[in-house]
């Protein structure tokens, strides 16, 4: 990774362990609508494609109007309570600081809304070390479309050959492949690791502490 100038990170499951807070918000919505609640593991197994897809995948057999209401209630609760139990993964803060101190660039590319992502990063003390935050509502498309990565490269004026996307799921590896940037799979988090590995990421690490600058 020594030649890399731009390190792009996914948020949930990569920099941020947000599983419990997401599950709490989902179950708040489901309880309001008298829908059986889900375990944290059931919820995080569907994380990675944004809130709308999360709710749809958790209650696929419910009518659309119920799913829409569940999404509204989920967002209402989660936007007010994004950091109850959420915390940075071990090595996340140190790695981002190390990248910045080396004179290189950092970005967060997530399927969470941009403003919400900024609030979380700020509350956890690393927003000042992130050069750009790109959320689901920043561009016209979200991951696994390459559009958020293209936007990041353009904004930060870096070539795809000198950039890497680090994430915990198949969504991130596929996004990197679609955008023709290097990909790195981190083995903590929530994604389907077998599926992600089948996409042949250039790097596989157990922890963010293994990111080489």
TrEMBL record:
Any GO molecular function: phosphoglycolate phosphatase activity
EC nos: 3.1.3.18
Pfam families: HAD_2
Keyword list, A-Z: Hydrolase
SUPFAM superfamilies: HAD-like
GO cellular component, one term: cytosol
Origin superkingdom: Bacteria
EC top class, as a word: hydrolase
PANTHER family, alphabetized: PHOSPHOGLYCOLATE PHOSPHATASE
Family (UniProt): Belongs to the HAD-like hydrolase superfamily. CbbY/CbbZ/Gph/YieH family.
Protein name (Swiss-Prot/TrEMBL): phosphoglycolate phosphatase
Record organism: Sulfurihydrogenibium azorense (strain DSM 15241 / OCM 825 / Az-Fu1)
Organism lineage string: Bacteria, Pseudomonadati, Aquificota, Aquificia, Aquificales
